[in-house]
Amino acid sequence: MHDRTSRAIKALGKLGELAWWGISAEINSVHGCCQVPCMRWRYKAPSEATAQLIDEVVRASPTQVEWTLDRTRRNWVLLPTRVVIEASGLDGPAFSNVVQRITVEDQAFCRQAQTDLDLIVSGLHAAPSVDD
């Protein structure tokens, strides 16, 4: 498990018991380049307080690109807003193609988003637990 993945799981886990999680690899295995980052996870007992805390951390992080925390479905998703816009939503048929296109065509964006995700994970790691 990569350092960011283990740090992200630990940070999310301190905010609630994780039932499931998935974090995109930093490097695309097909193209060998930096790829668009995305985190997905589900808490066993999600709470509004946890969601608000995560949203506050994301908004307070000094990111280079805009981020979206989507919690409209069972699994919460954190990813660059550009992907959501260009794919016309997370359920859009073009979602995977948009992620791949950005990965291949815009490495500067991918590197910025990867750096951002590290900052967000650090912010989550430093955040107080919801019970504090």
Q: How would you characterize the overall build of this protein?
A:
The structure is a single chain. This protein is α+β, with helices and mostly antiparallel strands. It has one domain (3-125). 47% of the residues lie in helices and 15% in strands. The protein has five helices and four strands; from the N terminus they run αββαββααα. It has helices at 3-14, 48-60, 81-86, 95-105, 107-126, and strands at residues 18-23, 39-43, 67-70, 76-80. Strands 1-2-4-3 form a four-stranded antiparallel sheet. A hairpin with a 5-residue loop joins strand 3 and strand 4. Helix 1 (3-14) crosses helix 5 (107-126). The longest helix is centred in the last third of the chain and has 20 residues, at 107-126. The model has no long low-confidence stretch (mean pLDDT 92).
List keywords for this structure.
5 helices, 4 strands, 47% helix, 132 residues, alpha+beta
Largest beta-sheet characterization: 4 strands, antiparallel
Using only C-alpha atoms, the radius of gyration works out to: 14 Å
Question: What is the number of strand segments?
Answer: 4
Percent of sequence in beta strands: 15-25%
Instruction: Indicate the multimeric state.
Output: single chain
Number of helices: 5
Nutshell version of this structure?
The protein is 47% helix and 15% strand. It has 132 residues and is α+β, with helices and mostly antiparallel strands. It has one domain.
